[in-house]
Amino acid sequence: HWLVGDKTSTRGGGVLAGGLALKSRSHTARRPQVDMERETPEAAPPPTFLRGEEASSGSSSARARFERLIRRVQAEVCAALEAVEEGSGGGGVVFREDAWTRPGGGGGISRVLQGGHVFEKAAVNVSVVYGVMPPDAYRAARPDAAAGVEKAGPVPFFAAGVSSVIHPNNPFAPTLHFNYRYFETEAPQDAPGAPRQWWFGGGTDLTPSYIIEEDIKHFHSVQKQACDKFDPTFYPRFKKWCDDYFHIKHRGERRGVGGIFFDDLNDHDQETLLDFATECAASVIPAYIPIIERRKDTPFTEDHRAWQQLRRGRYVEFNLVYDRGTTFGLKTGGRIESILVSLPLTARWEYDHDPRKKKYTNFLSLYCLNYKGAAIF
């Protein structure tokens, strides 16, 4: 089952630049051969990465609306983080921007902030990709719709997404990850009458070093409010999906305290799910910035910092061992700087570390070990 995953910009080797990666759910499947043009660096981002009629500023297609969404989210999140830096004595620390395009359409924008007063490292990336993928992907998306094209050839596809990871300096301020993406296929090249497939994916999750119930309740309440506007089953369904996905199997722990996560979502009409993705993306700032404002100046000791570094070690372990986009990018020769942009600047591992012997550890390890999805919210 070929999917589009939530990984940051990679250049080459079968990984989709700027937030998306193809991966397989089958351990025996061959590595995908994804046909895409090489990128050209740009001095500044173009008005749109779309091609053809959809490049018009007035286009109402799902592709055009989703590109406008992800670029707006990138701009708003970066502005919000820079405002926090500015208000905390970190003036002058801003996002670095890299933009690129492809001759046949598509491109991406990576924005990265490092060494801030509040944020140790923050990345917010967007991408728009046109390419051709194996026919297996088309058939896997919805087998009933692919009936009659079993022997079809390569499948043209479109993918767009925004992906972000934010690592604060203060041990009492949590790490945030979010990504939202849209994927669409054309008919296989030798089966022009076959139906087009589309789906949405994404999510927002929180990874603290210290459990502060006020913060976790606030974060989850914002996710629930966004979900409940569309379907009362969304929040419990996507919360469980998030809990299950961010599981460090070799540790027997969750990576953090969850949030929402979904993939291959096409069980509602396209308009509803586009609005849902828009609402979820719009909830990132109100879910996270109030927590940062409360915790960014909390006094801490070297012991607190050491515990944060140990928990970041868990974050690194998950991303390098289990995150599907990261592992795929590393195996297929993607651009290393972009694949690893989600990792913190610093992390720590101690041999045979026992958190119960350290009073400063709070109860996060026990929480992650025993988490059943309803301990806090």
From TrEMBL:
Q: In which pathway does it act?
A: Porphyrin-containing compound metabolism; protoporphyrin-IX biosynthesis; protoporphyrinogen-IX from coproporphyrinogen-III (O2 route): step 1/1
Q: Does the keyword Secreted apply?
A: no
Q: Name one GO molecular function term.
A: coproporphyrinogen oxidase activity
For this protein, what is the EC number? Answer: 1.3.3.3
According to the UniProt record, one GO cellular component term is:
chloroplast stroma
**Enzyme group, top EC level?**
oxidoreductase
The residues forming a coiled coil are: none
Domain of life from the UniProt record = Eukaryota
Q: Which reaction does it catalyse?
A: coproporphyrinogen III + O2 + 2 H(+) = protoporphyrinogen IX + 2 CO2 + 2 H2O
Query: What keywords are annotated for this sequence in UniProt?
Result: Chlorophyll biosynthesis, Chloroplast, Heme biosynthesis, Oxidoreductase, Plastid, Porphyrin biosynthesis, Transit peptide
Which stretches does the entry tag as region Disordered?
A: 23-60
Compositional bias of type Basic and acidic residues: which residue ranges?
A: 32-41
Give the UniProt subcellular location, in the record's own words: Plastid, Chloroplast
* Single GO BP term: protoporphyrinogen IX biosynthetic process
Gene3D superfamilies xref list: Coproporphyrinogen III oxidase, aerobic
Against InterPro entries, the record matches this protein to: Coprogen_oxidase_aer, Coprogen_oxidase_aer_sf, Coprogen_oxidase_CS
Subunit details for this protein?
A: Homodimer.
Function comment: Involved in the heme and chlorophyll biosynthesis. Catalyzes the aerobic oxidative decarboxylation of propionate groups of rings A and B of coproporphyrinogen-III to yield the vinyl groups in protoporphyrinogen-IX.
Q: What does the sequence similarity comment in the record state about its family? A: Belongs to the aerobic coproporphyrinogen-III oxidase family.
Q: Which NCBIfam families did the record assign?
A: PRK05330.1
Entry protein name: Oxygen-dependent coproporphyrinogen-III oxidase, chloroplastic
Origin organism of this chain? Aegilops tauschii subsp. strangulata
